[in-house]
């Protein structure tokens, strides 16, 4: 088989550390690929006024598949202050480059699996009847619409007169917000399209069918957010008829956040819009080990980017040796392998991770529930490299 080319986009902070570790595991597992480095993140914002240089977009255009670490994002005004002096006041505005990539390549399908690994000390436990301690096995895959909704970027502070006047034609706007001075109004929109709502819902149902999940849940808020959540629900209702044997139901995001700690084992595939998907996937990730274990895929029609859900964790970036858990990034790499039909290698790596976690001899600081600092290495925690080495040995 011809050698694959994978774009490696480390980004900032611990993104750089964990991506390197994932590539070590891929190599050890026999995945034959060439990695081309691509720039992204804070350094390029400061030096070039653009955290997502065009050359990175071009590399993705060419090679289609990428592994991404994490980036550092800061609010607009703080970002402006950190620009190189020669770029200051030249009209550069900071936008999150990962959100930019998702939108540029229309990576509309975000897939976030949350599956309990046996023996993980971070697994959620609850008290059962008669005071018994139960450890429910969570096996949830969240499908989050990744490009629209509240993260679509259609927003204003002190909107132009034209925009403001258009809003004023809506009776709820004029009645509830018309009293405020225009320059004190901030608006962030939540726009959904039928095309991309259908795509995320279809992908989720197909996934449930392919992998034998009996339950598909739409997690939105259709009773209050009638138009957008309402459209998602209507599409689900149409589509569920095509999937015999799959039970469909819907929950409200607020109630879902409660239910997921009461009966997480009853959920399978979850569908949500952008923001609620972000929230509910973090919720479920918390039940299976948190950020050190949460992996994800951003998949579009042509390009796909695989990344851990954690950020750049700047306070850990300069620790030598590094102590962060590489598993989320390694499992994201497994999702990439699944995507390109290298399922055997992906399963080998996942089995190796499962073995290391179950044996429990090598544990990163988060798995030992220690406060993250260099001292953890003297308290028995494995370094990032040792954690990776253990996975490689188990392979
Ligand atoms: P974060 O995910 O970077 O870190 C939060 C905390 O989670 C850390 O302090 C650490 O205790 C823990 N953690 C994260 N990754 C871990 C790992 N691999 N192993 C063990 N523990 C881990 O989120 P935070 O602190 O809110 O944001 C830091 C920066 O990252 C910000 O600039 C933020 O904008 C950015 N960010 C970027 C994301 C991305 O690139 N997709 C996603 C989330 C945040
Ligand atoms: Mg998030």
Q: Would you spell out the secondary-structure blueprint of this structure?
A:
Elements: E1 4-11, H1 14-28, E2 33-37, H2 42-48, H3 54-63, E3 65-70, H4 76-81, H5 97-104, E4 109-115, E5 126-127, E6 133-134, E7 139-145, E8 155-157, H6 161-168, H7 171-176, E9 186-188, H8 194-211, E10 215-220, H9 228-240, E11 247-252, H10 253-262, E12 269-272, H11 274-287, E13 295-299, E14 304-308, H12 327-339, H13 343-359, H14 384-394
Helix pairs in contact: 1-12, 1-14, 8-9, 10-11, 12-13, 13-14
The chain binds 1,4-dihydronicotinamide adenine dinucleotide and magnesium ion (MG).
Overview of the molecule:
- With 395 residues, the protein is of the alpha/beta class.
- It has a domain at 1-107 and 297-395: Isopropylmalate Dehydrogenase, CATH 3.40.718.
- 39% of the residues lie in helices and 17% in strands.
- The protein contains 14 helices and 14 strands.
- β1, α1 (14-28) and β2 form a beta-alpha-beta unit.
- The longest helix is centred in the middle third of the chain and has 18 residues, at 194-211.
- The chain starts with a strand and ends with a helix.
- The model has no long low-confidence stretch (mean pLDDT 96).
- The protein binds 1,4-dihydronicotinamide adenine dinucleotide (NAI) and magnesium ion.
- Residues 278, 282, 309 line the site of magnesium ion.
């Amino acid at each position: 088989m011809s050698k694959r080319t994978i774009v490696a986009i480390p980004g900032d902070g611990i993104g750089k550390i964990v991506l390197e570790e994932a590539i070590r595991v891929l190599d050890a597992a026999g995945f034959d690929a060439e990695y081309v480095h691509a720039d992204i993140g804070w350094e390029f914002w400061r030096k070039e006024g653009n955290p997502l240089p065009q050359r990175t977009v071009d590399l993705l255009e060419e090679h289609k598949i990428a592994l991404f670490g994490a980036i550092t994002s800061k609010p607009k005004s703080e970002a402006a202050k950190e620009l190189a002096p020669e770029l200051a006041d030249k009209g550069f505005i900071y936008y999150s480059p990962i959100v930019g990539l998702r939108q540029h390549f229309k990576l509309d399908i975000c897939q976030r699996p949350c599956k309990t690994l046996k023996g993980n000390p971070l697994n959620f436990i609850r008290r059962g009847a008669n005071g018994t301690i139960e450890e429910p096995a969570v096996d949830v895959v969240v499908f989050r619409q990744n490009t629209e909704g509240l993260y679509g970027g259609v927003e204003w502070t002190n909107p132009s007169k034209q925009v403001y006047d258009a809003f004023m034609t809506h009776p709820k706007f004029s009645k509830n917000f018309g009293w405020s001075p225009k320059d004190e109004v901030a608006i962030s929109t939540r726009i959904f399209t039928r095309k991309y709502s259908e795509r995320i819902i279809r992908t989720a149902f197909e996934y449930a069918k392919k992998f034998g999940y009996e339950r598909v849940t739409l997690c939105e808020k259709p009773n209050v957010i009638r138009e957008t959540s309402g459209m998602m629900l209507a599409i689900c209702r149409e589509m569920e008829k095509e999937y015999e044997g799959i039970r469909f139901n819907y929950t409200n995001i607020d109630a879902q956040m409660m239910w997921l700690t009461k009966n997480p084992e009853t959920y399978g595939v979850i569908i949500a819009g952008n923001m609620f998907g972000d929230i509910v996937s973090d919720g479920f990730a918390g039940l299976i080990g948190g950020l050190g274990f949460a992996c994800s895929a951003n998949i579009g029609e042509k390009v796909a980017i695989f990344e851990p859900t954690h950020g750049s964790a700047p306070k850990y970036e300069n620790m030598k040796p590094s102590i962060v858990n590489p598993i989320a990034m390694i499992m994201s790499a497994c999702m990439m392998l699944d995507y390109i039909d290298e399922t055997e290698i992906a399963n080998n790596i996942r089995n190796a991770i499962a073995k290391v976690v179950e044996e429990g001899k090598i544990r990163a600081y988060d798995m030992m529930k220690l406060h993250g600092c260099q001292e953890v290495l003297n308290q028995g925690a494995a370094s990032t490299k040792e954690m990776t080495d253990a996975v490689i040995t188990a392979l």
